[in-house]
Write a structure and sequence with these properties.
The chain has 102 residues and is mainly α. It has one domain. 81% of the residues lie in helices and 0% in strands. It is built from 5 helices and no strands. Helix 1 (3-30) runs antiparallel to helix 2, helix 2 (33-55) runs antiparallel to helix 3 and helix 3 packs antiparallel against helix 5 (85-96). The longest helix is centred in the first third of the chain and has 28 residues, at 3-30. 21% of the residues are buried.
């Protein structure tokens, strides 16, 4: 992997964790759990766009699935302030995956 591809890979891996931190900050500091999920959805779309540009394929990621579950739990059960833990679990699973070579 050349240097520019490595930078793009590192940027895309950092977008989602950063969005979780922003969401948690909005929730814990200002109590904006419900509108804060927009930050996570936007990060998910940005990450998918970066992957599409890099690979030329559109497929939903682990974070995309976590975002769908998060929104469903928030809207159905109104558990916005606890549902963010879904992203922590997704992040752990993503970090445990072994990167493919090639």
């Amino acid at each position: 992997m050349n240097n520019e591809n490595q930078k793009r890979f590192d940027i895309s891996r950092g977008i989602f964790p950063l969005s979780i931190l922003v969401f948690m900050g909005m929730g814990f500091i200002w109590g904006l759990w419900h509108p804060g999920w927009v930050v996570i959805v936007a990060a998910c779309f940005i990450e998918e766009i970066i992957k599409f540009i890099r690979c030329g394929k559109l497929k939903i990621s682990l974070y995309g699935v976590a975002t769908i579950i998060f929104i469903a739990v928030g809207l159905i059960f109104n558990l916005w302030n606890y549902a963010w833990l879904i992203f922590v679990v997704a992040w752990v699973f993503d970090e445990m995956r072994i990167p493919s070579k090639g």
